[in-house]
Specification:
globular; 0% strand; 9 helices; Vesicle_transpt_SFT2; mainly alpha; 176 residues
Length: 176
């Protein structure tokens, strides 16, 4: 696997136009895009920047959330997260991205994240639902936590460190 990533990195850096991936490598790259390394990098950065801009811009819509109109906030926040998450598809392709998302160690956090994207959007467009604003806020919070836990799965031992810190401060063993 590491060797495949090294060859793909080398291929992207050198920009081999006549390269045709084998069936095993189809999940690692997105050959149908036919983009150079600079174009992939630009696309990734643009997608990530737009996603962050939308997510951060959603905080300007918090007043609308408080006044009972959660749709502008939640839709902006959710679309920003989707764009930010999708930026890596410029390098690995959609198939490899989905395989990575639903790998055994991050399957539940990715599933929770995707599920609550749907729940958030469904709540936004259900105007007759009582306490909709609070439910949207809870749904966005769960979505954020799932995305955070999912992101930690890519950093070696990050989940273990966060769990140990949480145990230390939330569940002290020597209570006086």
């Amino acid at each position: 696997m590491l060797e495949k990533l090294k060859t793909q990195k080398q291929r992207l850096l050198e920009g081999e136009p006549d390269y045709s991936p084998t069936s095993q490598e189809d999940g690692l790259s997105c050959p149908s895009l036919n983009l150079s390394y600079k174009e992939r990098l630009f696309g990734c950065l643009l997608c990530f920047s737009l996603g962050m801009l939308l997510s951060l811009g959603s905080t300007l819509r918090l007043a609308q959330l408080v006044h009972g109109r959660p749709a502008p906030f939640a839709v902006c926040y959710t679309l920003g997260n989707i764009l930010s998450l999708g930026c890596t598809m410029f390098f690995v392709g959609p198939i490899a991205q989905c395989q990575s998302m639903f790998h055994a160690k991050r399957r539940y956090s990715a599933l929770t994240y995707v599920l609550f994207i749907g729940v958030t959007l469904a709540l936004c467009f259900s105007p007759r639902l009582p306490h909709r604003t609070g439910l949207v806020l809870i749904s966005v919070s769960i979505q954020f936590c799932a995305l955070w836990w999912y992101t930690l799965s890519y950093i070696p031992y990050a989940r273990t460190a966060v769990t140990n810190v949480a145990k230390k401060y939330c569940c002290p063993t020597d209570q006086v």
